[in-house]
Amino acid sequence: MGKISKNVANNKQKSKYIKPNVADYSYEYGNDNFVLLSIKNIQSNYQCFSDWSKTEMSKFWAFNDKLHKMTWNELYKSASKGKDKRGMAYTIMDRNLYKNMPFIKEISKDVTMFELRVDGEIRVHGFRSNSIFYLCLLDREHKISRK
C-alpha cells in the first residue's frame, strides 16, 4: 500500500477534516509509523457503540485521539503484565477466546489478535495490518479476556 499523498495536505480546497500533517501518516508497515484506527471490521453483532453510555463514548473518543498520536513502537511499549500495565496496555490475545465468534474464521491464523485498554474496564480487540489497527470487537465490560 502507498502513503497518503502530501498533495492532500496541500490541496487548494482546504478542509477542516484534512489536517496539514496528514502526510505524517503512512499505510505502510513500520513500527515508527503512527497508528491508524479502522472500524471497518467491527462486529456489531457482538457489541455495538449504541450499547455504550455517553460517558463510555467520551472515553472511546479520548482513546481514539490518544491512539492516533502514538507510533506502533510506543503502543508496543505499553505492553506488560500485572500491576505494571500502563497506557493502552497492548496485550496479545489467544485466538481461542474468539472461537465462538464467526469473524475469527475469516482472519488468517498468522494474524495476531490483541486488546487495548480504553480505560480501567473498557477494552477493544483487533489486529494490525501495516499501520492500521482494525478494531473488531468492543468489550466495554472487559469480559472477553476474563473467560
Record the SSE blueprint:
Layout: H1 6-10, E1 36-38, H2 54-68, H3 72-77, E2 91-92, E3 113-117, E4 123-129, E5 132-139
Parallel strand pairs: 1-5
Antiparallel strand pairs: 2-3, 3-4, 4-5
Protein architecture, described:
This protein is α+β, with helices and mostly antiparallel strands. It is 18% helix and 17% strand. It has three helices and five strands; from the N terminus they run H-E-H-H-E-E-E-E. The chain has helices at 6-10, 54-68, 72-77; strands spanning 36-38, 91-92, 113-117, 123-129, 132-139. The chain has a five-stranded mixed sheet with strand order 1-5-4-3-2, with helices on one face. The model is unreliable at 1-12 (pLDDT under 50).
List how many beta strands DSSP finds.
5
Helicity level: 10-25%
Number of helices: 3
Shape: globular
Classify the secondary structure makeup into a structural class.
Answer: alpha+beta
What is the spatial order of strands in the main beta sheet?
A: 1-5-4-3-2
Mean pLDDT: 83
Nearest-angstrom radius of gyration?
A: 16 Å
How much of the polypeptide forms β-strand, as a percent range? Answer: 15-25%
Helix and strand string, N-terminal first?
Answer: HEHHEEEE
Low-confidence residue ranges: 1-12
Short description:
The chain is of the alpha+beta class.
